[in-house]
Design a protein that fits this description.
The radius of gyration is 26 Å and the shape is elongated. The termini are far apart. It is α/β, with parallel strands linked by helices. The protein has three domains: about 60 residues, Orthogonal Bundle (434 Repressor (Amino-terminal Domain)), CATH 1.10.260; about 130 residues, Response regulator (Rossmann fold); about 140 residues, Response regulator (Rossmann fold). Strands 2-1-3-4-5-11 form a six-stranded parallel sheet, covered by helices on one side. Strands 7-6-8-9-10-12 form a six-stranded mixed sheet, with helices on both faces.
Length: about 350
């Protein structure tokens, strides 16, 4: 007599629950109590149950078709103190990329401002829960305190900056170390020896200090006379920048702040004849004028939606102990703000 193959039906019979409960428990659905999920999983292990991958995929598709005729909604969360219209260009481009990708995949997108006057975080969470919104994309934040009390268990989230990594969400953000490598390597290839780097403490924190990590490695591998003491402090004013340039005499300034280009230009320095300038991952889409390590911020938003869609399809909610991190690489783009390489001039 052949042994009966373990199934949701055999597990349900032994557990004294319905087959639907077994199915949801094996998918870690939050509607099944944790202790019931664990008991059902133990019974499944004891019986030697393994899911049929073809049937699993078919049932997932049927469930998604049957849930609702309305478009599913993805929430985009702004955790900063300022409204959407006043966010930095990087956040706006990330949002635009997320919105375009989500709508292409059949999702609706709605914006939520966590620090809107008169709106408590708990109220935002209640709205999301009441409307059955499970997927969220967190726009870049300055500090973790902007979103630290955001509940995890009922949502699947993707963070678009490294600062929010402690939320336990999957992350999509620039490859900071690679971006710094790309910038310095291209400037070295153009013949620059004294490369000056300036960054605020907040900008460096947002990179998880990877900007300065690469800078330290680079400076340890060049002659001491070519090492430019970098400018890093809480705030960098125009006067701070110009004093640093006068003191350190860099041949080129590499900075994530596009204002530094304008300050150098306004001071009377000729760019790139007197000094060159390259922007590190600026949130600008203009090309040709300012040399830069270009980051596709729209791509960050679109990739966040792709990651979120995959996770929601698997119906896994809540934080993960080992969040996936997707890094968006930077690409060097030449511009008039950097002089041509000595090799090119010599040719």
């Amino acid at each position: 007599m052949s042994k009966i193959r373990p199934s949701c039906k055999t597990i349900a019979r032994e557990a004294g629950v319905s087959r639907m409960t077994v199915s949801m428990a094996l998918r870690d659905h939050p509607r099944v109590a944790p202790e019931t999920r664990e008991r059902i999983k133990r019974i499944a292990d004891k019986q030697g149950y393994t899911p049929d991958p073809n049937l699993t995929e078919l049932m997932r598709y049927l469930r998604k078709r049957d849930i609702s005729k309305e478009e599913p909604v993805i929430a985009i969360l702004n955790g900063k103190k300022c409204p959407l219209k006043d966010l930095g260009e990087d956040s706006k481009l990330i949002r635009e990329g997320a919105k375009e990708r989500a709508e292409k995949l059949g999702f609706k997108v709605e914006d939520f401002w966590l620090q809107e006057p008169g709106m408590r975080l708990q109220r935002v969470v209640q709205i999301l829960q009441a409307r059955g919104i499970r997927g969220i994309v967190v726009l870049p934040v300055e500090t973790l305190s902007d979103v630290f009390s955001l509940p995890h268990e009922d949502f699947m989230g993707v963070a678009t900056c490294a600062v929010a990594a402690k939320l336990g969400y999957n992350q999509v953000h620039p490859h900071f170390y690679q971006a710094m490598h790309t910038g310095i390597s291209n400037l070295m290839d153009k013949g620059f020896k004294r490369i000056g780097f300036c960054v605020t403490e907040l900008e460096d924190e947002r990179s998880n200090h990877l900007y300065q990590s690469y800078l330290l490695w680079y400076q340890q591998n060049i002659p001491e006379e070519n090492r430019v003491h970098h400018l890093s402090q809480a705030n960098i004013s125009k006067e701070d920048l110009l004093s640093w340039v006068e003191r350190e005499k860099p041949e080129v300034v590499l900075s994530p702040n596009i204002n530094h280009y304008h300050w150098l230009e306004d001071s009377g320095l000729s760019i790139p004849d007197d000094i060159s300038f390259a922007a590190l991952a600026p949130a600008i889409e203009e090309k040709g004028k300012i040399a830069q390590v270009h980051i596709g911020y729209r791509k960050i938003g679109a990739t966040a939606i792709d990651v979120l869609k995959t996770k929601l399809a698997n119906e896994r909610l809540g934080p993960t102990d080992n969040p996936a991190v997707t890094l968006i690489r930077g690409e060097w783009m030449d511009g008039a703000s950097v002089r041509k390489s000595k090799k090119t001039v010599a040719a």
